[in-house]
Amino acid sequence: MLQRAAFEGHQVTFATTLPGLPEQFDAHPFMIVPDCNRDEKGAALRCAWILLSSMIKLRPDVVISTGALPGVIALAIGRVLGARTIWVDSVANAEEMSSSGRLARRFAHLWLSQWEHVAKASGAEYAGAVL
Q1: Residues whose CB is less than 8 angstroms from the CB of residue 97 and which lie 6 or more positions away in sequence, other chains included
Q2: Among 26, 28, 60, 109, which has the highest number of CB atoms less than 10 A from its own CB?
Q3: Sign of torsion over alpha carbons 16, 65, 85, 100
């Protein structure tokens, strides 16, 4: 939510896998998508279906993600739908690009790390850290 000011004046829909998080940060409108990982194929398909259905209705111009596999799925769907896509790897990945981040590289128009040395090692761009 630290980036919220950057989106002022734009129509934004927040998506998260964590129920209660949007209300905690007054992030509206929002959608809750099922969490998934590479070991849960059924959950990943369910997540993809929900994201696809929602994104067809929303038709986003830009899709931005900072998180795991659901975020990668959102980027892939967004790109197919013609949206610009941005991946910002989590600040928690201080030693190397996350596995989701490496996968997101295929779908992100802009691929960022919040750690300069990780960006340099992975080929991502570095534009500063959120924290």
Answers
A1: 89, 113, 118, 121, 122, 124
A2: 60
A3: negative
Under a CB-based contact definition with an 8 Å cutoff, are residues 81 and 56 in contact? Answer: yes
Label residue 2 by pLDDT band (50, 70, 90): low
The pLDDT assigned to 108 comes to 97
Q: What Å distances lie between residue 112 and 66, 84, 106, CA to CA?
A: 9, 14, 13
CB under 8 Å to 118, separation ≥6 — which residues? 89, 93, 94, 95, 96, 97, 124
Helix ranges, the chain (H): 21-24, 41-58, 69-80, 99-104, 116-122
